[in-house]
Amino acid sequence: MTLKAKVHIFLKNGVLDVQGKAVEGALGGLGWTDVSNVRVGKVLEFDLKASDKSAAETEVKAMCEKLLANTVIESYRIEVA
Amino acid sequence: MKAAVLVFPGSNCDRDCKVAVETTTGGHVDMVWHQETALPSGLDLIVVPGGFSYGDYLRCGAMASQSPVMAEVAKAAERGVSILGICNGFQILCESGLLPGALLRNAGLKYICKPIELTIENRNTRFTSAYGDEQTIWMTQGNADGNFFADADTLQSIEDNGQVVFRYVENPNGSINNIAGIVNKAGNVLGMMPHPDRAFEPSLGSADGAPLFHSLQRLLQSA
Q1: Complex-level ipTM
Q2: For an engineered disulfide with B8, which of A30, B39, B53, B111 has Cβ 3.0 to 4.6 Å away?
Q3: Would you call A33 helix, strand, or coil by DSSP?
Q4: pTM for the complete prediction?
Q5: CATH of the domain at B94
């Protein structure tokens, strides 16, 4: 079966997200002063052939650990459907 | 000195590194494409050059760190071969796990391209033994992601082991503990954001990078 995988990657809490800070500053400048803790991350989407959902999740986790995320600075969340 | 400079798609300091090693040491330098699965035999030095390998896509150095040649570089590192990663090369060495930590986006979000003043924190490494008693040295730097980061435990061990080799006099990018360059625990792998390959003779504005290459030459003479 072919499944849709989605990987969300963000800098870990405690790692300064300078892009998030810049966006937060820009929003504040436009009047949205109630905004805080803006984080800029990325989303990867792809199709994956796998025997079932669980097998696909295992594969995507391996991809994250090997290449897609740098776990020194980033955390990731996987969705498979 | 027998050296190799790796070439990735998007490397742009590979020729600078070749000229720097040749000029400062009189050594022989082979250029090695990233798809190679073997390195030239008898290497004394492998340089991972600056640039924008794979367009900095995903993360700086992420894709390059998985190139076939990097498996050979890891084996060479294990054997004790000197490995020097400059700028994108530093990012690649961190991504490959040969050095601890990671390089984040510069705190000011700007691409910083300017001469930069450094202190030499450890003069007993194989990369710094030829430096004298200079208080500070100058090299140039050009990057958008030079903000070194390591978690608290890793940072503590880097500091305790004397692995910090260069620090910025004035922190340009938010780098933790002003770190500009570090070695691995064994001391044979150096990663640094400033460019010794752009500072090896006075006509370049600074010759302060030359002793780094002389240090590696001295290592061979003492062997």
Answers
A1: 0.89
A2: B53
A3: coil
A4: 0.95
A5: 3.40.50.880
